[in-house]
From TrEMBL:
Name listed for the protein in its UniProt record: Ribulose-phosphate 3-epimerase
Lineage of producing organism: Eukaryota, Viridiplantae, Streptophyta, Embryophyta, Tracheophyta
Annotated residues for binding of a divalent metal cation: 34, 36, 84, 193
Reaction equation(s) it catalyzes: D-ribulose 5-phosphate = D-xylulose 5-phosphate
InterPro entries, per the entry: Aldolase_TIM, Ribul_P_3_epim, Ribul_P_3_epim-like, RibuloseP-bd_barrel
Stored PANTHER family: RIBULOSE-5-PHOSPHATE-3-EPIMERASE
Cofactor(s) it depends on: Fe(2+); Mn(2+); a divalent metal cation; Zn(2+)
A Pfam cross-reference name: Ribul_P_3_epim
Keywords annotated in UniProt: Carbohydrate metabolism, Cobalt, Isomerase, Manganese, Metal-binding, Zinc
EC annotation from Swiss-Prot or TrEMBL: 5.1.3.1
Family, similarity comment: Belongs to the ribulose-phosphate 3-epimerase family.
Top-level lineage group: Eukaryota
Active-site annotation: 36, 193
Length: 237
Protein backbone atom coordinates (compact mmCIF):
# COMPACT_ATOMS: atom_id res chain seq x y z
CA UNK A 1 0.00 0.00 0.00
CA UNK A 2 0.84 3.68 0.22
CA UNK A 3 3.03 4.86 3.12
CA UNK A 4 1.30 6.23 6.21
CA UNK A 5 1.89 9.90 7.02
CA UNK A 6 0.59 11.02 10.39
CA UNK A 7 0.24 14.79 10.53
CA UNK A 8 -0.72 16.44 13.83
CA UNK A 9 -2.64 19.65 13.18
CA UNK A 10 -0.73 22.45 14.89
CA UNK A 11 -4.00 24.40 15.11
CA UNK A 12 -4.58 22.44 18.33
CA UNK A 13 -1.13 23.24 19.73
CA UNK A 14 -0.07 26.02 22.07
CA UNK A 15 0.73 28.69 19.46
CA UNK A 16 2.86 30.58 21.97
CA UNK A 17 5.19 27.57 22.10
CA UNK A 18 4.99 26.48 18.50
CA UNK A 19 8.59 25.32 18.08
CA UNK A 20 8.56 23.11 21.18
CA UNK A 21 5.08 21.80 20.37
CA UNK A 22 6.32 20.86 16.88
CA UNK A 23 9.35 19.08 18.32
CA UNK A 24 7.17 17.29 20.84
CA UNK A 25 4.98 15.94 18.02
CA UNK A 26 8.03 14.77 16.04
CA UNK A 27 9.35 13.06 19.16
CA UNK A 28 5.95 11.36 19.46
CA UNK A 29 6.37 9.88 15.98
CA UNK A 30 4.69 12.44 13.70
CA UNK A 31 5.73 12.31 10.02
CA UNK A 32 4.43 15.71 8.97
CA UNK A 33 3.23 18.86 10.73
CA UNK A 34 -0.13 20.08 9.41
CA UNK A 35 -0.38 23.87 9.26
CA UNK A 36 -3.85 25.41 8.81
CA UNK A 37 -3.65 28.73 7.03
CA UNK A 38 -6.94 30.63 7.13
CA UNK A 39 -7.68 34.16 6.03
CA UNK A 40 -10.86 34.66 7.98
CA UNK A 41 -13.15 34.48 4.95
CA UNK A 42 -15.69 31.70 4.60
CA UNK A 43 -15.20 29.58 1.49
CA UNK A 44 -18.97 29.15 1.03
CA UNK A 45 -19.58 32.58 -0.36
CA UNK A 46 -16.95 32.08 -3.02
CA UNK A 47 -19.29 30.04 -5.15
CA UNK A 48 -20.55 33.43 -6.27
CA UNK A 49 -18.24 35.73 -8.11
CA UNK A 50 -18.73 38.87 -6.07
CA UNK A 51 -15.60 38.83 -3.95
CA UNK A 52 -16.09 42.21 -2.26
CA UNK A 53 -19.61 41.51 -1.03
CA UNK A 54 -18.72 38.03 0.12
CA UNK A 55 -15.64 39.05 2.05
CA UNK A 56 -17.60 41.67 3.94
CA UNK A 57 -20.50 39.38 4.72
CA UNK A 58 -18.89 36.09 5.59
CA UNK A 59 -16.15 36.40 8.14
CA UNK A 60 -15.37 33.46 10.36
CA UNK A 61 -13.89 34.29 13.76
CA UNK A 62 -10.93 32.06 13.01
CA UNK A 63 -7.92 33.84 11.65
CA UNK A 64 -4.96 31.53 12.11
CA UNK A 65 -1.43 31.71 10.79
CA UNK A 66 0.37 32.92 7.70
CA UNK A 67 3.76 32.87 6.02
CA UNK A 68 5.60 34.77 8.81
CA UNK A 69 4.78 32.01 11.28
CA UNK A 70 5.84 29.29 8.83
CA UNK A 71 9.11 31.17 8.34
CA UNK A 72 9.70 31.35 12.09
CA UNK A 73 8.90 27.68 12.61
CA UNK A 74 11.14 26.66 9.70
CA UNK A 75 14.11 28.07 11.62
CA UNK A 76 13.46 25.51 14.37
CA UNK A 77 12.69 22.36 12.39
CA UNK A 78 13.50 20.46 9.22
CA UNK A 79 10.10 18.71 9.34
CA UNK A 80 7.74 18.48 6.37
CA UNK A 81 5.32 21.39 6.80
CA UNK A 82 2.02 20.29 5.27
CA UNK A 83 0.24 23.59 4.60
CA UNK A 84 -3.54 23.59 4.13
CA UNK A 85 -4.72 26.84 2.55
CA UNK A 86 -8.24 27.82 3.54
CA UNK A 87 -8.04 31.18 1.82
CA UNK A 88 -9.91 32.98 -0.93
CA UNK A 89 -6.91 33.49 -3.20
CA UNK A 90 -4.25 30.79 -2.82
CA UNK A 91 -2.18 32.18 -5.70
CA UNK A 92 -1.26 35.16 -3.49
CA UNK A 93 0.32 32.80 -0.94
CA UNK A 94 2.53 30.73 -3.24
CA UNK A 95 5.51 33.07 -3.29
CA UNK A 96 5.49 33.99 0.42
CA UNK A 97 4.98 30.42 1.57
CA UNK A 98 7.65 29.12 -0.79
CA UNK A 99 10.10 31.64 0.64
CA UNK A 100 9.02 30.85 4.17
CA UNK A 101 9.92 27.18 3.74
CA UNK A 102 6.59 25.41 3.35
CA UNK A 103 6.83 21.82 2.07
CA UNK A 104 3.33 20.96 0.88
CA UNK A 105 0.84 23.50 -0.51
CA UNK A 106 -2.75 22.24 -0.54
CA UNK A 107 -5.36 24.61 -1.95
CA UNK A 108 -9.15 24.24 -2.14
CA UNK A 109 -10.77 23.27 -5.43
CA UNK A 110 -13.79 25.46 -4.59
CA UNK A 111 -11.74 28.63 -5.03
CA UNK A 112 -9.44 27.44 -7.83
CA UNK A 113 -11.81 26.20 -10.50
CA UNK A 114 -10.45 28.63 -13.07
CA UNK A 115 -6.71 28.76 -12.41
CA UNK A 116 -5.51 25.48 -10.96
CA UNK A 117 -3.08 24.79 -13.81
CA UNK A 118 -1.21 28.00 -13.17
CA UNK A 119 -1.43 27.48 -9.43
CA UNK A 120 0.08 23.97 -9.57
CA UNK A 121 2.89 25.12 -11.85
CA UNK A 122 3.79 27.98 -9.54
CA UNK A 123 3.68 25.80 -6.45
CA UNK A 124 6.09 23.36 -8.06
CA UNK A 125 8.36 26.15 -9.29
CA UNK A 126 8.72 27.29 -5.67
CA UNK A 127 9.81 23.80 -4.65
CA UNK A 128 6.60 22.83 -2.89
CA UNK A 129 4.42 19.77 -3.35
CA UNK A 130 0.96 20.61 -4.74
CA UNK A 131 -2.23 19.19 -3.27
CA UNK A 132 -5.92 19.90 -3.70
CA UNK A 133 -8.60 19.79 -1.03
CA UNK A 134 -12.37 19.59 -1.18
CA UNK A 135 -15.09 20.38 1.33
CA UNK A 136 -17.62 17.74 2.44
CA UNK A 137 -20.28 19.04 0.04
CA UNK A 138 -18.05 19.10 -3.06
CA UNK A 139 -18.31 16.08 -5.38
CA UNK A 140 -15.15 14.03 -5.80
CA UNK A 141 -15.37 14.25 -9.61
CA UNK A 142 -14.25 17.86 -9.32
CA UNK A 143 -10.70 16.84 -8.42
CA UNK A 144 -10.20 14.16 -11.10
CA UNK A 145 -8.98 16.63 -13.73
CA UNK A 146 -6.41 17.96 -11.25
CA UNK A 147 -5.01 14.49 -10.58
CA UNK A 148 -4.90 13.55 -14.23
CA UNK A 149 -4.13 16.85 -15.92
CA UNK A 150 -0.98 18.21 -17.48
CA UNK A 151 0.07 19.72 -14.13
CA UNK A 152 -1.07 17.06 -11.68
CA UNK A 153 -1.45 17.55 -7.94
CA UNK A 154 0.37 14.98 -5.82
CA UNK A 155 -2.14 14.72 -3.00
CA UNK A 156 -5.91 15.00 -2.52
CA UNK A 157 -7.15 16.17 0.88
CA UNK A 158 -10.71 15.02 1.52
CA UNK A 159 -12.16 17.22 4.29
CA UNK A 160 -14.02 15.12 6.81
CA UNK A 161 -15.51 18.18 8.57
CA UNK A 162 -16.47 21.64 7.31
CA UNK A 163 -13.20 23.61 7.24
CA UNK A 164 -12.68 26.33 9.81
CA UNK A 165 -12.17 24.83 13.25
CA UNK A 166 -10.55 21.97 15.09
CA UNK A 167 -12.53 19.71 17.39
CA UNK A 168 -15.49 18.99 15.12
CA UNK A 169 -17.23 15.67 14.58
CA UNK A 170 -16.01 13.35 11.79
CA UNK A 171 -18.48 12.99 8.88
CA UNK A 172 -18.56 9.28 7.87
CA UNK A 173 -20.42 10.04 4.64
CA UNK A 174 -17.22 11.58 3.24
CA UNK A 175 -15.68 8.09 3.11
CA UNK A 176 -17.47 7.35 -0.17
CA UNK A 177 -15.20 9.95 -1.75
CA UNK A 178 -12.07 8.42 -0.27
CA UNK A 179 -13.10 4.97 -1.53
CA UNK A 180 -13.79 6.28 -5.02
CA UNK A 181 -10.41 8.04 -5.13
CA UNK A 182 -8.47 5.04 -3.87
CA UNK A 183 -10.15 2.75 -6.40
CA UNK A 184 -9.18 5.09 -9.24
CA UNK A 185 -5.66 5.97 -8.01
CA UNK A 186 -3.96 3.11 -6.14
CA UNK A 187 -0.74 5.03 -5.37
CA UNK A 188 -2.05 8.59 -4.78
CA UNK A 189 -1.51 10.28 -1.43
CA UNK A 190 -5.01 10.67 0.02
CA UNK A 191 -5.27 12.82 3.12
CA UNK A 192 -8.19 13.15 5.53
CA UNK A 193 -8.67 16.05 7.92
CA UNK A 194 -11.20 16.66 10.67
CA UNK A 195 -12.42 14.58 13.58
CA UNK A 196 -9.78 11.86 13.15
CA UNK A 197 -8.70 9.93 16.22
CA UNK A 198 -8.77 6.43 17.73
CA UNK A 199 -12.53 6.03 17.22
CA UNK A 200 -12.63 7.13 13.55
CA UNK A 201 -9.24 6.13 12.13
CA UNK A 202 -10.34 2.63 11.07
CA UNK A 203 -13.13 4.04 8.91
CA UNK A 204 -10.70 6.37 7.15
CA UNK A 205 -7.90 3.83 6.80
CA UNK A 206 -10.12 1.07 5.44
CA UNK A 207 -11.61 3.52 2.93
CA UNK A 208 -8.08 4.09 1.64
CA UNK A 209 -6.73 7.24 3.31
CA UNK A 210 -2.98 7.15 4.05
CA UNK A 211 -2.22 10.72 5.21
CA UNK A 212 -3.96 11.41 8.50
CA UNK A 213 -4.40 14.86 10.00
CA UNK A 214 -5.40 14.94 13.65
CA UNK A 215 -5.54 17.92 15.98
CA UNK A 216 -7.63 17.62 19.10
CA UNK A 217 -7.31 13.83 19.40
CA UNK A 218 -3.50 14.02 19.44
CA UNK A 219 -2.99 17.20 21.47
CA UNK A 220 -5.82 16.37 23.86
CA UNK A 221 -4.57 12.88 24.68
CA UNK A 222 -2.51 12.19 27.80
CA UNK A 223 -0.21 10.08 25.59
CA UNK A 224 0.09 11.66 22.11
CA UNK A 225 2.67 9.08 20.98
CA UNK A 226 0.22 6.28 21.63
CA UNK A 227 -2.50 7.95 19.53
CA UNK A 228 -0.05 8.54 16.68
CA UNK A 229 1.17 4.95 16.69
CA UNK A 230 -2.36 3.58 16.88
CA UNK A 231 -3.33 5.60 13.79
CA UNK A 232 -0.21 4.50 11.93
CA UNK A 233 -1.00 0.83 12.64
CA UNK A 234 -4.53 1.27 11.35
CA UNK A 235 -3.26 2.73 8.04
CA UNK A 236 -0.55 0.09 7.65
CA UNK A 237 -2.81 -2.89 8.34
C1 LIG B 1 -10.10 22.37 10.12
C2 LIG B 1 -8.65 22.13 9.90
C3 LIG B 1 -8.14 20.92 10.56
C4 LIG B 1 -8.28 20.89 12.08
C5 LIG B 1 -8.46 19.46 12.49
O1 LIG B 1 -10.54 23.36 9.27
O2 LIG B 1 -8.39 21.98 8.51
O3 LIG B 1 -6.79 20.65 10.20
O4 LIG B 1 -7.21 21.46 12.75
O5 LIG B 1 -8.70 19.39 13.86
P1 LIG B 1 -9.36 18.13 14.57
O6 LIG B 1 -8.47 16.96 14.31
O7 LIG B 1 -9.46 18.53 15.98
O8 LIG B 1 -10.72 17.92 13.91
ZN1 LIG C 1 -6.38 21.30 7.89
Amino acid sequence: GVAAKIAPSMLSSDFANLASEAQRMLDCGADWLHMDIMDGAQLDGLLFDNVVAILLLHFVPNLTIGAPVIESLRKHTKAYLDCHLMVTNPLDYVEPLGKAGASGFTFHVEVSRDNWGELVQRIKSKGMRPGVSLKPGTPIEEVYPLVEGEYPVEMVLVMTVEPGFGGQKFMPETMDKVRALRKKYPSLDIEVDGGLGPSTIDMAASAGANCIVAGSSVFGAPDSAQVISLMRKSVEE
